[in-house]
Design a protein that fits this description.
This protein is an alpha+beta fold. The chain has three domains: 79 residues, no CATH class; 76 residues, no CATH class; 70 residues, no CATH class. The protein is 11% helix and 19% strand. A five-stranded mixed β-sheet has the order 1-2-3-5-4, with no helix packed on it. A three-stranded antiparallel β-sheet has the order 6-7-8, with no helix packed on it. A two-stranded antiparallel sheet has the order 9-10.
Amino acid sequence: MNVYECTALTGGGANALDAITWFEGGAADGDMAFATVSQRFYVFRYDGTASAAETVAAHPYVIKPDDAGANNGRWKEATAAIIESDFNHDSLTGFVANEHIDWTNATSNFVTTGSVTLNNSAATYPLDLACSRAGAQYIRIVHSANQSVGNMLQRNQSGGSYNVQWLYYIPNNQTRLQWFTDGAAGIAMYLTADAGNLYILGDCSAATFTDRTPAFAGDAVAAIRSISAKPDTVDGRGWGELDHGTLPAGVLVETVEDKKTVRRRNLSNMVSLLTKGFQELAQRVEALEGR
């Protein structure tokens, strides 16, 4: 078997693949040829019985020797060894282990219809993911395995007041959520859960409860009088679901989520309102008793 090295596929030059003569003393059935052209590497095998037309428009390529005329004999590209254009990933099938693929010079975005796994035994984060919402689609990152501690998402806008970190913390296979902020003014935070308990790890300052407890100084009885339950939720024992729309200002909390207004209640303000209402009723009772 002969092995040839070429620097061109066609053109008939001294080192071109199609310049290798087809007749006896030239290429023989089963011969191999390696061609390196414009940073592309090709592997060809000579088929002495082949008569297909020459093509370099689509893989696998077929090269006809220039002097073959009407005779058989073609260089046929080895499809199992197609490696093209600084590793054109369309030509790589199966799983490529322990390889680094770089899209730095890509002319378009990397798009996948399946799953993408980022896995490294050595911690290499932070990993920057520039994400944006497309229409009604949202971004979700799912971690399938329990880790002891680590960063899940981090938003750090230098020079701004909205430096926030979202972290996950999973000790003993029990999920915990940590939310850190740099304490900048103007950041409002709240946590909701469909089920389960809220866990607070570490210290929790009571200053907002002991030093700045809200107090209602208005007409509490008048404000309480309007509070009612949703009629269609009241059961036979008289219990129902609170109609947040009947809450007075200060107790009603409205937030916008997914472009919808969500109504909740401020329990601390509610306690103050009820305390003031009880005081007003006690004063009225004392006034009646004094007559």
